[in-house]
Amino acid sequence: MFEKKIATLILAIFVAGIMVFPVSLATCSETDNEVAIDFRPVSIESEGWQIKGLLIYPEGAVEAPAVIELHGFTGSKDVHTNERYMYSNRYTHESIGKYDLTEAFCSRGYVLLLIDLRGHGDTLGAMDYGLMVKDVSNAITFLQEQPEVDGNRIGLFGHSLGGMVACVVAGMDERVKATALWAAPAGMEISAGLMVHDILNLIPIIGPMLSGIVDMLLPIIMGMIPSIVGYLPFGALDSLIGLVGSVVTLSGYTPISIGIGAGISPEGFYFMIGSCKIYLHHLPVLVKQLTKDTPYPIDYVGKISPRPLLIVQGQEDTTVHPGNSELLYENAGEPTTIVRVKNTDHYFTDPEDKRDEVLTLTAEWFADNL
């Protein structure tokens, strides 16, 4: 009788093991290889406008650290997501490569907020650098109100133009606890000057002399550009073109598209660059902001300290001169880390393996510093 009970017990344990083992294996497999991720479209009210975004988070996240990612000029939130999490992919730029931020950050337990900067993607409107800074501060407030987010652990991550905005916001807003910049200009005048110097230094003998002249003239030229553009009748011209566009629309035709990247609508003539639509009447304000009345990152990077800062720069970047990152590093406080990535471009996509390298590096840096 005793042996029979033992045999029954062993059989029961064996059957239970068969039933439990596959479940345990499936659970481990899912945990080890892939994190379940939820997402939802969001709309953030900011300065009279609706900033469109995508909130992505590990399933069941509660009071988790969060990172706001800011794309570059002409980009959008969709450029830096996996196709599974896109809800509007018409602005995806395969030519510049994509960074799967969702996997990199959510697998480490982070909430990710991707937004379309003002004048880009689904946010639309006029591109306005000054308002972008306010928009990101309002996005921080929005994140602090979300149950998935720990409002005391919010970071900023910006690429190129997004890096400029991220640097300024982090310098102004102490709610930003960690900041990562990819290929961020130190300032438009600075960036232009670095490019000009490189070109002039290719000229034998007289190149260095011309560089000195440029140092004197460039601030004057950059200061004059907004005034010159401001005097040009872009507003009146756009109103006239907009009238034509209205007549065309009222007549039953769709607004005129002039090839790729330009068109006429009831609002006027526009250029379409990536996800960014720029009308003629936008140009005076935009030029003035980017060349004159602009909060430059170089003036705010030192104010980020003692909060941690990461600067990542491709050494073959021909869009934003690598000298920008060096100047930001020299003017930053502690703790600041700079990573100079050899043999790669502005988007870290040439060669492609650099993209994954810098993304993993950045996600791990946030995991250690936020």
How would you explain this protein's 3D organization?
- This protein has 370 residues and is α/β, with parallel strands linked by helices.
- The protein folds into 4 domains: 1-33; 39-187 and 294-369, Alpha/Beta hydrolase fold, catalytic domain (Rossmann fold), CATH 3.40.50; 191-230, no CATH class; 232-291, no CATH class.
- Helices cover 42% and strands 21% of the residues.
- It is built from 10 helices and 12 strands.
- It has helices at residues 2-33, 101-106, 129-144, 161-172, 188-200, 206-231, 234-250, 283-291, 323-331, 353-369, and strands at residues 37-46, 49-58, 64-70, 111-115, 149-159, 176-182, 256-257, 262-265, 268-273, 276-279, 309-314, 336-341.
- It has an 8-stranded mixed beta sheet, sandwiched between helices. A 4-stranded antiparallel beta sheet has the order 7-8-9-10.
- Helix 2 links the parallel strand 3 (64-70) and strand 4.
- Helix 3 packs across helix 4 (161-172), helix 5 packs antiparallel against helix 6 and helix 6 (206-231) packs antiparallel against helix 8 (283-291).
- The radius of gyration is 25 Å and the shape is globular.
- The termini are far apart.
